[in-house]
């Protein structure tokens, strides 16, 4: 059994579909986890959301999507809690236009309420329900999976929702040595250099594993497979790459791999080794 973990998608539907097609995934035994942020910035947010929603619906035990801070910002806007989502830096204006069919224009205060009503009415009800039901974290025998990171290295169940969705904690990136934790949210070019060397764009240092490899036109959409540390990437120009990360592996991750190998049934392990 493997776990395939996909970083922040941000509306890149064509890259997402190409990436999923690339994965050597056994749908009856392997897990597929999305770390959140399906929406904003990209060219086909509605398509991304619907694709992932259906994957989760059709195989709910083995396909899991986490809540990202961008989905939470959209829900906060729809529910009237705040209007951060419509600030230009979030990319929410692209999501707004794709769902409503018209550009986001904010000139007077009344326009905010008009925009709130428009997006509420335009996002399909089943997609809004999907967003509201997304978990904040997942855990399996290999790792913890969160959108942004952990609060002071604590287990996700003991971390605040705000930390799981928003944290950018340098101490976590550099010093966390608990159960391996796979996260997105912060593009890896902004993470410490030492954990990026020889990683093909992802970040690995001690037990912290960052796989948000960015969202510009040159950035790959990345998926990491555990426990084997195979990395699958799709690019906007249509090409794809596969890497197997073996160098400079931290001891905590080597232990995870050794435990996974020890837990593998003898007959299955023999069969895999002979291929």
State the gist of this model.
This protein is α/β, with parallel strands linked by helices and 275 residues long.
Q: Could you walk me through the main structural features you see in this protein, from its secondary elements to its overall organization?
A:
With 275 residues, this protein is an alpha/beta fold. The chain has two domains: 202 residues, Purple Acid Phosphatase, chain A, domain 2 (4-Layer Sandwich), CATH 3.60.21; 65 residues, no CATH class. 36% of the residues lie in helices and 15% in strands. It is built from ten helices and eleven strands. The strands form two sheets. The protein has a six-stranded mixed sheet with strand order 3-2-1-9-10-11. Strands 4-5-6-8-7 form a five-stranded mixed sheet. The C terminus is likely disordered.
Overall structural domain count = 2
CATH architecture classification name of the largest domain: 4-Layer Sandwich
CATH class designation of the largest domain: Alpha Beta
Mean pLDDT: 94
Give, in order, the helices and strands: EHEHEHHHHEEHHEEEEEEHH
Specify the overall morphology: globular
Write the layout of secondary structure elements.
Elements: E1 3-6, H1 13-22, E2 31-34, H2 45-58, E3 63-65, H3 69-78, H4 92-100, H5 109-122, H6 125-132, E4 137-139, E5 144-146, H7 161-166, H8 170-175, E6 181-183, E7 203-205, E8 208-210, E9 221-226, E10 230-234, E11 240-244, H9 251-263, H10 266-274
Parallel strand pairs: 1-2, 2-3, 5-6, 6-8
Antiparallel strand pairs: 1-9, 4-5, 7-8, 9-10, 10-11
